[in-house]
């Protein structure tokens, strides 16, 4: 009887034993000696399958989730950093509360004015979003002039961020987002006020200024993500922006890699086939800005991805070199 049962078990594919069942472990349904080769083989395959799945789970990059950062990282601190002292913790909470209030105020204004005018809203948003990087570079240049503080990586990364946001703005202008005089007037005047406010904030507390910029980029990410989900099918039928095609796929992409401090250079090369792809990449850019602004809150630790020693050991075999005549 045991021999016939064994032949039945061996005739069943091993993959069927690896499928979950409401009855618990499928191996317990069949009586076999503990030292049976087939049972050991099945158990080894089950363990191996589980290990492979866990490895694949850790390798796959998670979607950007602005509200899912663990406690402590909200302060721009790396994992494992001891909690801040009592007074500093309260200062951080106060800074972040002010930033959230200011961001929510601007969001409510944009919601009221641009509920059904997406491209105009994006034009205003991109005009505002690039201003902090001008402010950061202005203050950093001032500090360098007086010899107070010098970090070339910060200047490189912030310039690359402003370069990226400028192309977002050019894309929105190509799509007609700046056609109305009122939209240009509003965006420009908010930007002027925002510039001087961010300069003062950055001189007072760089951590607060970086967190405020993170809040703005967070809103930009959520705005584009919502737009893509609601208008995705229509966007797939529309021609891609010429500015986007040139920026994302042509020429030297050094500056495109530079602002993405969480990625190895040359690891992200977008495809642009229609307007849907354009907005997907703009949304992903905003996610990278948000990550970089979070990293900047741990002052003095930001590294350019092109000079980061953690990326120096990466294999250069995937580099795409320009063709020569």
TrEMBL record:
Pfam families: AOX. Its EC number is 1.10.3.11. The chain crosses the membrane at residues 122-143, 185-204. InterPro entries: AOX, AOX_sf. The keyword Transmembrane helix applies. Its main location: membrane. It is found in: Membrane. One of its GO terms (cellular component) is respiratory chain complex. Binds 2 iron ions per subunit. GO terms for molecular function: alternative oxidase activity; metal ion binding; superoxide-generating NADPH oxidase activity; ubiquinol:oxygen oxidoreductase activity. Keywords: Electron transport, Iron, Membrane, Metal-binding, Oxidoreductase, Respiratory chain, Transmembrane, Transmembrane helix, Transport. It catalyses: 2 a ubiquinol + O2 = 2 a ubiquinone + 2 H2O. Its cofactor is Fe cation. GO terms for biological process: alternative respiration; carotenoid biosynthetic process. It comes from the Eukaryota. Belongs to the alternative oxidase family. This is Ubiquinol oxidase. It comes from Lithospermum erythrorhizon.
